[in-house]
Amino acid sequence: MPGKRARRHFSQLSEFETSLIVGMKTAGWSTRRVAGQVDRSECAVRNCWEQWTREGTQARKTGSGATRKSTRREDRRIVRQALVDPTVARSTIRADVGVAIVPQAISRHLAEANLKSKRPYRALPLTP
Q1: Which residues, in sequence order, are CB contacts of 57 under 8 Å at separation 6+?
Q2: Segment Disordered: which positions (predicted)?
């Protein structure tokens, strides 16, 4: 359709845009007029305004995500095992700590503690 503006679909509202929406709706503007002004869909404007009136905030909710399989104490034990022996394998750490998590989770815990992997050499690097 000519003359129809392209909307920015599937992008999050910025903090500035949500403040604009709340301000314009508080001033008595219609949802359609606000949507045209901030170049967003009417549905996005309506959802933002409903959240504001229901909760009194315009902050985004945190994602649910998967629940952690290990406790903070077990996470500290994983990091401590890696600090004691930097060349230990993930499967060995998992067996020593006694927690049922996948090896990728152990790597993630070590990365959160700013530890990099240190693997032993298979052979000594010899010069010719």
Answers
A1: 51
A2: 55-74
